[in-house]
Amino acid sequence: MTVNITQSQAGVLTLSLQRPDKKNALSLAMYKQLTEALQQAERDPAVKVVVLQGSDSCFSSGNDLQDFLSSGELNAHHPTVAFLYQLNAFTKPIVAAVAGLAIGIGTTALLHCDLVYAAPGCRFQMPFSQLGLCPEAASSLLLPQLVGYQRAAQYLLLGEAFDTDKAEAMGLVNQQVASDKLLDFVADKAHALAKLPAEAVQHSKALLRGKIKRKADKVIATELEVFGELLKSDACQQQLKGFFAPKK
């Protein structure tokens, strides 16, 4: 299994990325598992909070590019596309635990989470332009809103990596937690959140994110249209060839 799904009696659904041999790169099958789990959690009144995590040493190295490139058109039926829309639409709180790598969607997905806790020394990066591509997951909207335009340009245009200290300073991460304590810490936070009146929590999230969520839906669609065009470009194809070329 590539996504381990567990639910506590207290109402916390935990989605654990478990593909260590690929540094938790997200395959189409994993996107489908995540989407279906979020859809089920949305319908299930027993689920109060969702935890999204990798291991205590790696969150996600991003898309499994070989899998993604063989997946066809980026339409509403595409597993990656369905996950992006479901993540944006989700009405219950999501708490993320991040360690090690958080690359591409590994970073942009965090913009849709409500609480993010990270181990020291993480590497966050959105190297879309380096692959001849553009931002996704509404990051072209959400990141500037969070960190300001200039810093968003630094990380989305140049694709520069940044560490946990910078992620915390810019507000992407709530708090740093030691790697060996991270998953337990996040589980405790999620269970504390699940004890609160669910209706109040969900209404509060809707008030916090409602307006931006509607904008984000439109931005996701625009990003995907541009992303799909760039994916066909010669420049992108050359960059991807370089990515897959054997490292000397």
Structure description:
The structure is a single chain. The protein has ten helices and eight strands. The strands form two sheets. It has a six-stranded mixed sheet with strand order 1-2-3-4-6-8, sandwiched between helices. α1 links the parallel β2 (12-17) and β3 (49-53). The model has no long low-confidence stretch (mean pLDDT 95). The relative contact order is 0.14. The chain is 49% helix and 13% strand. With 248 residues, it is an alpha/beta fold. It has one domain (3-179): 2-enoyl-CoA Hydratase, Chain A, domain 1 (Alpha-Beta Complex), CATH 3.90.226. α5 (139-147) crosses α9. The protein is globular. The protein has helices spanning 28-43, 65-69, 79-89, 105-108, 139-147, 149-156, 164-170, 179-194, 198-231, 234-244, and strands spanning 3-7, 12-17, 49-53, 94-98, 101-103, 115-118, 123-125, 175-176. It comes from Arsukibacterium tuosuense. Pfam families: ECH_1. Keywords: Isomerase, Peroxisome.
List its salient traits.
delta(3)-delta(2)-enoyl-CoA isomerase activity; globular; ClpP/crotonase-like_dom_sf; Enoyl-CoA_hydra/iso; 2-enoyl-CoA Hydratase, Chain A, domain 1; isomerase; alpha/beta; peroxisome
Short description:
InterPro entries: ClpP/crotonase-like_dom_sf, ECH/Chromodomain_protein, Enoyl-CoA_hydra/iso. The protein is α/β, with parallel strands linked by helices and 248 residues long. It contains ten helices and eight strands.
